[in-house]
């Protein structure tokens, strides 16, 4: 049982504000992911929650109690560091049991708890080893095991998988998601990796320059980005942007001018009027090749991945990325025409804010757990 | 012979040459200790009947064991005290630095540039008024102060090498500062602390200026023991050599036994 509230928190490092007033509510058992470009303050924010970094102003509350003045040792949180930060002079067992030793838990009970955690993480055969005799993935597991043994109210993970190779990352990602269900714990997770964020999060917090750009479920961020930054940051490859002129706005949507004819995007047009310049945003996977399409471009690069094909197109000084299903017969330098479904396009005003879609996407509020068979059956048992 | 082999050979010869030059006085001192007084002032020779007469006289004349015990207590006592003071100091400098930390470190080191004789008067008067003249406590405190800059500086560099993450992980695990130091920092930097301690022991052991000026008999260490043979009996080379050999033997043996510890680095497979 653990909730976390951040109330307008600010971090100032000797004159430079790094966190500029963040509000956040984390519910019990929620899996919250912080994403954002390098240097945006993700680690700093997490370290402030952990208590490793002081809070310049604002309030941090765990389970409704202000903890600003509580040291890291007493907040009841566990943190997994990107560098693992294992104690090099202790065996795996002692590493995992260190918090219990400090809490003066009797030896037998300590061993029992360490063994239980080791079983979950398949670390039993390694308990007597020193960290330097472990592989990267094993060290990562020990670091997670050390956190589990503490039985914390909230787990904090700062890019825990970034030192692992791709295959191990996928495996650990799935294991972490399962762990979240098994432990029924609140987790906060920092990552650079889009896929980690999209697949694990109940709620994603997008940060830029110490400011929260948007908080929402993965599908909400994907389908209803609040502004141009979030639209460009979430999704890979990146969303295409094109400056267009508004022809008119009414209850049905906003009409914009495209090279091959006008097009109506079903978004609320309050505040825009004919003649304004707005930015049209379309995700690469929402573009499709079409002989009659309103847009054209010359192919610069083709990436054939088998399942999908990415085309990098150029037209005048605008560039497009188009992801087509399956194979594409075109060659580099071919001129192609393409189209898109206006319902899936986005419009951004000159100051970067998105115009709200008239209809919400049906999957936006889907619970992450519904995506997993195991938890559904687990719930019935 | 190709140029690199020649270079290597020359370097090896040079190294040996320097080693011999450095070691020769010590060697000659040890050898002279086994001579009679007559042989000692005769033209130098390596061929003679070794005798223990010099050593016997020296040990009979002065209470060698008392001096040795004083040296041990003072050297180790001052080192222990210096470590106790320096560990918290180096901790705060390494992990909680402020704008003035570097300046403080440099200033501390700069005190070592002052000639000790410059503060002889104040220290002597202070010791006298505090009743610390010719006491082990007095010398322990003086040596602790004398070595503190070096000890803090060395510990600081060792502590700085400890990844911050490890200590933070300990804090997240519930460690207070004291537990963090005892369970994590000290074990991790043990080789460094050991070599720092050994250096402090050696420096204290060989210190002569303060021991000669502040002790007479009760607390006099081995450096005073040597000196007591040099002034009245300046011409009795064999006995002086024997006394010197006896004075440096313990620390030489100690240094030889711990040289592995002194050299051992700080390499751990800590953070990836
Ligand atoms: N101790 C510090 N003193 C001064 N500035 C700091 C300190 N720690 C971090 N910063 C600055 O705060 C900003 C945010 O850093 P932070 O480590 O939180 O970024 P991040 O989002 O975790 O980045 P990355 O994704 O690269 O890990 C950076 O500009 C960094 O330079
Ligand atoms: Mg970071």
TrEMBL record, chain A:
GO cellular component: ATP-binding cassette (ABC) transporter complex, substrate-binding subunit-containing; maltose transport complex
Lineage top rank: taxon: Bacteria
Keyword presence, Metal-binding: no
Matches recorded under SUPFAM superfamilies: MOP-like (SSF50331), P-loop containing nucleoside triphosphate hydrolases (SSF52540)
InterPro entries named among the record's database cross-references: AAA+_ATPase, ABC_transporter-like_ATP-bd, ABC_transporter-like_CS, ABC_transpr_MalK-like, ABC_transpr_MalK/UgpC-like, Mo/tungstate-bd_C_term_dom, NA-bd_OB-fold, OB_MalK-like
Coiled-coil intervals, chain numbering: none
Keywords: ATP-binding, Cell inner membrane, Cell membrane, Membrane, Nucleotide-binding, Sugar transport, Transport
Domain called ABC transporter: residue spans: 4-234
Gene Ontology MF annotations: ABC-type maltose transporter activity; ATP binding; ATP hydrolysis activity
Stored SMART domains: AAA
Protein's UniProt name: Carbohydrate ABC transporter ATP-binding protein (CUT1 family)
Annotated source species: Chromohalobacter marismortui
UniProtKB/TrEMBL annotation, chain B:
Domain of life, source organism: Bacteria
UniProt entry keywords in alphabetical sequence: Cell membrane, Membrane, Transmembrane, Transmembrane helix, Transport
GO cellular component: plasma membrane
Pfam family, one: BPD_transp_1
Localisation per UniProt entry: Cell membrane
Coiled-coil blocks: none
Bilayer topology annotation: Multi-pass membrane protein
Family per record: Belongs to the binding-protein-dependent transport system permease family. MalFG subfamily.
Protein name: Sorbitol ABC transporter membrane protein /mannitol ABC transporter membrane protein
Lineage, top ranks: Bacteria, Pseudomonadati, Pseudomonadota, Gammaproteobacteria, Oceanospirillales
């Amino acid at each position: 049982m653990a909730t976390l509230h951040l109330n307008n928190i600010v971090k100032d490092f000797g004159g430079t504000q790094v966190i500029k007033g963040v509000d956040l509510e984390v519910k019990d058992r929620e899996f919250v992911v912080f994403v954002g470009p390098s240097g945006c303050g993700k680690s700093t924010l997490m370290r402030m929650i952990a208590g490793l970094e002081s809070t310049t102003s604002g309030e941090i509350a765990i389970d409704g109690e202000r903890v600003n003045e509580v040291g890291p040792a007493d907040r009841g949180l566990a943190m997994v560091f990107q560098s693992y930060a294992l104690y090099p002079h202790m065996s795996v067992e002692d590493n995992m049991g260190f918090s219990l030793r400090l809490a003066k838990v009797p030896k037998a009970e300590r061993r029992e708890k360490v063994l239980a955690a080791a079983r979950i993480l398949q670390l039993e055969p390694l308990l007597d080893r020193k960290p330097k005799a472990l592989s990267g993935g094993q060290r990562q597991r020990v670091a997670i095991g050390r956190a589990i043994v503490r039985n914390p109210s909230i787990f904090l993970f700062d890019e825990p998988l970034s030192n692992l190779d791709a295959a191990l990352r996928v495996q650990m990602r799935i294991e972490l998601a399962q762990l979240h269900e098994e432990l029924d714990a609140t987790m906060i997770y920092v990552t650079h990796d889009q896929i980690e964020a999209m697949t694990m999060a109940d709620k994603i917090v997008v940060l830029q320059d110490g400011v929260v750009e948007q908080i929402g479920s993965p599908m909400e961020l994907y389908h209803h980005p609040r502004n141009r930054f979030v639209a460009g940051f979430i999704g890979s490859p990146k969303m295409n942007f094109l400056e267009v002129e508004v022809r008119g706005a009414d209850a049905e949507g906003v009409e914009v001018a495209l090279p091959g004819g006008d097009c109506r995007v079903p978004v609320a047009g309050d505040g825009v009027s004919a003649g304004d310049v707005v930015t049209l945003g379309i995700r690469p996977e929402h573009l499709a090749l079409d002989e009659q399409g309103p847009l054209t471009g010359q192919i610069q690069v083709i990436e054939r991945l088998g399942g999908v094909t990415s085309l990098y197109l150029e037209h005048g000084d605008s560039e497009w990325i188009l992801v087509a299903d399956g194979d594409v017969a075109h060659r580099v330098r071919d001129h192609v025409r393409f189209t898109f479904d206006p319902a899936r396009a986005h419009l951004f005003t000159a100051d970067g804010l998105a115009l709200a879609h008239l209809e919400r996407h049906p999957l936006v509020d889907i619970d992450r757990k519904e995506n997993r068979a195991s938890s559904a059956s687990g719930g019935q048992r | 012979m190709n140029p690199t082999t020649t270079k290597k050979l020359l370097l090896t010869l040079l190294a040996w040459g320097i080693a011999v030059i450095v070691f020769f006085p010590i060697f000659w001192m040890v050898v002279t200790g086994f001579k009679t007084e007559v042989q000692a002032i005769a033209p130098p020779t390596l061929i003679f009947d070794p005798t223990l007469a010099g050593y016997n006289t020296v040990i009979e004349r002065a209470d060698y064991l008392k001096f040795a015990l004083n040296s041990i207590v003072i050297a180790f006592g001052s080192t222990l005290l210096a470590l106790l003071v320096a560990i918290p100091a180096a901790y705060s400098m390494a992990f909680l630095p402020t704008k003035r930390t570097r300046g403080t470190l440099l200033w501390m080191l700069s005190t070592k540039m002052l000639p000790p004789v410059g503060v002889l008067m104040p220290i002597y008067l202070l010791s006298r008024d505090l009743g610390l003249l010719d006491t082990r406590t007095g010398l322990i405190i003086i040596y602790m102060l004398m070595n503190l800059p070096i000890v803090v500086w060395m510990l600081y560099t060792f502590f700085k090498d400890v990844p911050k993450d490890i200590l933070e992980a300990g804090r997240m695990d519930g460690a207070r500062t004291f537990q963090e130091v005892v369970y994590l920092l000290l074990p991790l930097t043990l080789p460094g602390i050991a070599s720092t301690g050994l250096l402090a022991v050696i420096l204290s052991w060989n210190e002569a200026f303060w021991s000669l000026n502040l002790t007479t008999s009760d607390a006099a260490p081995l450096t005073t023991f040597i000196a007591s043979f040099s002034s009245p009996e300046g011409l009795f080379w064999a006995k002086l050599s024997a006394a010197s050999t006896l004075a440096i033997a313990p620390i030489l043996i100690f240094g030889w036994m711990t040289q592995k510890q002194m050299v051992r680095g700080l390499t751990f497979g800590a953070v990836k």
